[in-house]
Amino acid sequence: MRLTFLLLAALTLGSALLALSRRRLVHCALWVAVSFAALACLYLQLGAQFIGFAQVLVYVGAVAILIVFAILLTRSTEEPAAPAVIPGWLSGISIAVLTAGGLVVPILSSSLLPAPPAAPPMVTAQALGQELMTRYVLVLEVAGLLLTAALIGAVILALKESEGRP
Amino acid sequence: MANPLDQLFVLLKQWLVALLPVGLQPLLSMVLSAAAIIAVFASLFAVTTLLERKGLGRLQNRLGPNRTGPFGILQPLADGLKMLTKEDIVPEAADQVVHFLAPLVMVVPVLTAYAVLPMGRNMVAVDFDGGVLFFFAVGASTELSVFMAGWASRNKYSLLGAMRAIAQMISYEVPLVLASVTVVMTVGSLSLVRIVQSQSGYHWGWLARWHVFTPWGLAGLLLFLIAAAAECNRTPFDIPEGESEIIAGHLVEYSGFKYALFFLGEYLGMFAVSSLGISLFLGGWEAPVSFLTWIPSYVWFFGKLLGFISLFIWLRGTLPRLRTDQLMNFAWKFLLPMTLVNLVAAAGWHFSAGWSFPGALAWRWLFSAAVVGVPYLALGHALAGRVHLGPRSYRYAT
Amino acid sequence: MIPLQHYLVVAALLFGIGLAGALTRRNAIVVLIGIELMLNAANLNFIAFWCYGPNPQKLTGVLFALFAIGIAAAEAAVGLALVIAIYRHNRTTQLDRLDKLKG
Description:
heterotrimer; A: mainly alpha; 73% helix; 0% strand; C: mainly alpha; 3 helices; elongated
């Protein structure tokens, strides 16, 4: 159990690091897909089966493919000649390290965190559906509206100039 | 229920597992299920290649392979040997690692998808609560493997083929999922075992209660089949491969064993999607009529699967390839609206289950069929209205 | 089971990695990848707190993560469409070259 967790955590963090540090963009996209899949396995380990599958379906199946398509359509498959980072990258890294450190230190020193349960809780798809259709039905509708708006917006943004505007 | 012939493989597995100490039993159980799935579907792949070559030969008025063994039945073996002994060529400019990984990313997830497919009564490796979702989730990685193959080959035909393939797979995944959702919605479960069990029992004592025997089920199965054919790149939707236009697309730089793995992955994907269709609409392992229940459940399942495979071969031998724009138009303008309409029809069927006045069944049928049929006619008329289909004139041929 | 701290530390580190990528890379697509990773780190926290929380039957954490996944997909689609539109106008996806408004 602990070994699986350590492997998955290392895979998630390592591939995330590679995804953001490789120079070639296609490699970035492939590594981030690995990171998403490893995170889905972590969700499975926490007992959230449905979320784990949804994560693979949405992130590996859709978001990674979208990123790949964007890379192909902006012709950035080749390794860029210019440096991959902005001039002020050192300050950016230090902000990120400070943020992560500011989160990790209180987590490790906190005594308020709950004790682990004996086993991960079971959640059935049926229970999720019941909640979605009763308590969260308004949120569901709003999310559906947002997704439709995003769909139409993405199509209009990506349309060719001559067709998009009169 | 506990018919020993029906449960032959289940009992065999239980007997084998019981031979080991208790601590190792879950492990052995998993290994046995995985080994059985791999062995059965790999041999089904061999049978299918022969069946396909023979069947296509017959459809094209020729004999097909007949040199290796009696009636050419050793042809799959010869093909396999040829593939294994061929030189594995990797282009010099290729991205070596990604080029190597692409076939593996194709085959391994497809094999894991079989874990949730019930192949007979009690014959399922894992009965996940979210089985259908799991199936589509692992299927999603196929697109990534196609992209990896196309990009890593460093060949413009490869990349073009991969982009076409991904666009097609994404477009047709939407109607595929929506066609499956009708069944999930009516049954109220994502578990494939529960879905198959919900189709047990017989109307009027003889006709099975399969979902295909309802108006929305029939329409759903047809929509599912069209989307499935596109999803596994079968003719008439084999544009990504398109030998005559873009010389096999993303597969162009693959040879030897890696090419064979892609081939295996495509066929395994076809079997998996067909099995899903069988479980969703055609009652999985159930017999179609009540007096044939003495035939074991796995025979029914694999019989139906062979039927699906023959159907795909028949389609491949009969239909010409579509153009890319026709393909996309068909997916977004026809299939997607039809699957949405079908959802409404399924909901109507589900909520009219309580009707009890005389002739209720006929009214339910009429209502549900009208909900699917009227938009079908309207949509078909609107889309086909712009195309003038008349007798074709041949200028140069007589 | 593994203590909750471990999951929280993984999520915090993932957030840090995503933030570092989003702040330092020049290419707009990689910046979007970094933002996606930060969203995922938040999701991991939601799931972990749901699993270790006092009342896992309420499903609040799981549903929040579910909505977050759906909305992140929409965000990715619109973001990448914006990147493509920007590329059409300026023939570049390097963020520091998009300085037309600079005086």
